[in-house]
Amino acid sequence: MTKRYSKHFSQKGFWRKIYHLPTTYKELSYRAKLLYYLLKSPVVPVALKASVVGALGYLICPLDAIPDTIPIVGYVDDVGVITATLGLLEPYITTDMRHKAAR
Fold it and tell me: Are 24 and 66 within 8 A, CB to CB?
C-alpha cells in the first residue's frame, strides 16, 4: 500500500467512515462493525482475519468499483463485499458482537 492511501487504512479511518455513512445504510454500518469485532476476536483464524481486513479496507478506501459519492447506489459494491465476508465468518459471530455492533 502506498503512503498516499495508507491514511485511509486505520482504525480512525474506519470509524470516520462508519459515522459518515448515509442513514439509509444503517445495515451496512452494522455489518461493518460486526466485521470489526471479528477482526479483534482471538478465536478467528488469521487467514479469515485477512479477508476482514480486505473487506473493511475496501469500505474505507476512497477508490471503489462504484464511487460512494453516487447517490443511492454508491455503497452497493461495499454492501456486497461486506456481506460476502460476513458469510465466511458467520460461525465466529457471538451474541456479544451482535450487541456491540447494534449500538
Answer: no
